[in-house]
Every structure is written in C-alpha cells, then in structure tokens.
Amino acid sequence: MPKPAGTIEVFLPPGELYFGDRYTRIRTLLGSCVSLVLWHPNKHLGGMSHFMLPTRRRGKATETLDGRYGDEALELLLDEIRRSRTRPQDYSLRLFGGGNMFPGVGHGDGHIGAQNIRAAKRLILAHGLQCQAEHVGGVGHRNLIFDVWSGRVAIKHSPPASGALRASSK
Question: Above 80 in pLDDT, residue 83?
C-alpha cells in the first residue's frame, strides 16, 4: 500500500510514545529499550511506545504517567485507544527490542533488555491482550518503521560494531 499524501513522519525518542491515524509513519531506534506497537486494522489507527525500564519506584500518588516505564507506557497507549473510542482488544499488538547492548558484561538474561522483555510480556497478559508477533532479545539494536496506514512494521536488526562494546580492562 503506497504512502498517503500528507503523511507525517514521527521519530520516537526513548521514553516517548505516539498514537496516530492513517497519515502517520512512526520510526524509532531500539537497543535495550522495548516498543509495543498497536494497530487497528479497520480504523487504521495505531501507536508505538519506546520504553526504557520496566517500572519506576513509586513516589507521590500525584505523579503523572511517564512513557519511560513499560507499565506506564502501556497505560498511556491504552488511554489513547480509549480516547479514539476504540477497544484495545480490536488492535493487533507486536513487541520489539530488548537487545543486549553489552554482551559479555553482566549476568546472562539479567541485562536490562531481558528485564524489559519480561515486563512487557507480563503487562500484555495482565491487560488481557495478545501479542501477534515479536522480534526481541539477541544482541544489538533495531531500527523500526511503523506505517499506520497499512500496519506494516519494517525492521532492521544490526549487531553492535565489532569490538565497540567490549568491557574496559581499566
């Protein structure tokens, strides 16, 4: 499906999310961060999150939701869905990211990318949603492009540059 005239392109930085209509393309670059991508196939609405951490330590009850945290990012996306007068269960959901950016450093699957993946999967289940596809884990970063008009997500998974992420011997 060709890109509609008047399409806006949004680059999604870490900690942000975006929800748009059929005239929207959302791009992001993920390392250990995770993106939840939701798309309504009939209404051509969709959104993407780019969260950095599973959750935050709770402080004051008056804190506003923050897209840097997985649990809050999903709540913000669900708020956007409700504002559009659609139902979350009518969206396809896909999960991306959670790469290990520092292989050989740390302890196996305890790296932040793995923690983010586990948190996202728990959140998806807790909200009664189903994940239709995922491209998670591994080593390196991912470039994502989400075309809301078609629901297509293009992904390019690149390993870290050779030797660029070696632990310092100092």
Answer: yes
pLDDT for the residue numbered 167 = 42
Domains of the chain, start order: 8-55+65-158 (3.30.1330.200)
Which string of b and e fits 11-50 if b means at least 16 CB within 10 Å? Answer: ebeebbbbbbebebbbebbbbbbbbbbbbbeeebbbbbbb
Closest CA to 65 of 24, 30, 15, 13: 15
Averaged confidence pLDDT in the chain: 90
Sheet containing strand 24-30, edge to edge, reads 8-11, 24-30, 141-147, 152-158
Dig out the tokens for 124 from the structure: 């998806």
Backbone angles phi, psi at 69, to 5 degrees: -115, 135
Phi-psi category of residue 140: left, alpha or beta, with phi > 0 → left and psi -120 to 50 → alpha: left
Q: CA torsion 17→21→25→29, rounded to 10°?
A: 20
Give the pairing type, strands 131-136 and 92-97.
Answer: parallel
